[in-house]
Amino acid sequence: MPDSKFDPKYRGAYGGRPLFPGDLRDLDRVMRDSPWDAERIEEVFAALYDKATGLTEEYQQLRKELAALENVPGKPKAAAMRKIVRRGRELGDLIGNFESLDRRVYLCHLQMAAEVNPEWRRELFDRYRFTLELQLFHTKADEFAEKADLFTRDMQENDDPESETIDQFLDLMHKSWKALKSISKDSRLVEVPRWHPGNETKRLEDLLLTEKLVPEPPEEFGGKLNWAERLVHQLRSVRHQCATLHEVNVVGIVALQEKVAAAWQKAHAPVEAVLEAEVLEAEVIHTGEVLQGEVIAPEVTPPPLVFMQPAAPVAAAPISPPLPPHPPPVMPPPLSPPAMPLPPAPAAEIPRPPTDAEMFSLDLADYNPSPAAAAAIATESILNGTIVKPAKNGRPQLKITYVRPGEPSPLGKQ
């Protein structure tokens, strides 16, 4: 069954099995020579435990079957040997799957930690190193504790064991004691990390062997098994201590990896830009009063009527009434911004008085004053009287009489 101490997202990958990341020095060399970029770390991390479901249960089941086949006094039969080989091969393939998983987990989280917090990287490395050392001791104690226990119980039940069985039993007990002695010696050189519970003991040996090492087994079987029972008890105690410390460290490794992954993902999360609108008060640029201009239509003064008659009397042309003035245009109200003051109007044009030739010529090309000048000439330069224009360019002599509007025409007297 999956260990309940771990989140279900790990799919039973932890608890009840060793870790198999490989040689940590080789893995550090891999990270140094071929570091992963952020994209690869994210891709590997997302799929770490996709294929972990059921692996731990299968591992534990195979271990039980192999222990039952191997831990039998006497030489195993051919059928049992074939089954042992087959189960061993299956267990090897399963361990290969764990090696691939644990290797990727280690490389992924160590590189994450190196980026977000180098101190976390050092701690994670130390936790893995200490856990792998515990596993070596646990594996050695587990290998002999179960087998020594089975052989001891078999000897207790056998009142008259054969010599071959006795030799096999003594050989196993000597190997078990030597394994226990090597655990005591090697664990004496391992310091308990500062972050580990019970680190006040400083040496791992003090945590694994709670009692003094039992004496070495006798060379000959004397019929008594007290020494064998004490040896089995110490082996099983060391195995239990290793398993307990291993579980504590695996829990710590997973917790630290979760903290590292959360910090790394936060550092690489996409940034969402949040813009707050700033309300600005309107600035009054111009507060002056805008006056609508008054358009005054200019007064139109009709020009005087001119009667031209040749030497011979002619009929007077009908006089057309003056046209009414156009209505003044309506200007729309000005749009913002307010209208700027108009520039001063240019000075009125002072009309030039026409010459005599221009005045009494009937040719338009001789004189072409501006409209304003023509109006001024019509109202100021022309007086009552009769003018005789001499013949020119083939036309006859003309007599021109000027009258003001409203005066009787001289032609009416003839």
Our estimate of the beta-strand percent is under 5%
Radius of gyration (CA) equals 61 Å
- Give the helices and strands as they follow along the chain: HHHHHHHHEHHEE
Assign an overall shape: rod-shaped
Q: Tell me the structural class.
A: mainly alpha
Spatial ordering of strands, largest sheet: 1-3-2
* End-to-end separation: 144 Å
Residue ranges: pLDDT <50 for 5 or more in a row? 305-317, 376-383
Helix content: 40-55%
Strand tally, please?
Answer: 3
**With helices defined by DSSP (H or I, 4 residues minimum), what is the helix count?**
10
What does this protein structure show overall?
The chain is 48% helix and 4% strand. It is rod-shaped. Helix 3 (55-70) runs antiparallel to helix 4 (78-116), helix 4 packs parallel to helix 8 and helix 5 packs antiparallel against helix 6. Residues 305-317 and 376-383 have low confidence and may be disordered. The protein has helices at residues 24-33, 38-46, 55-70, 78-116, 118-157, 163-187, 205-208, 226-267, 356-359, 371-381, and strands at residues 306-310, 385-389, 398-402. Strand 2 (385-389) and strand 3 form a beta hairpin. Strands 1-3-2 form a 3-stranded antiparallel beta sheet, with no helix packed on it. It has 414 residues and is mostly helical.
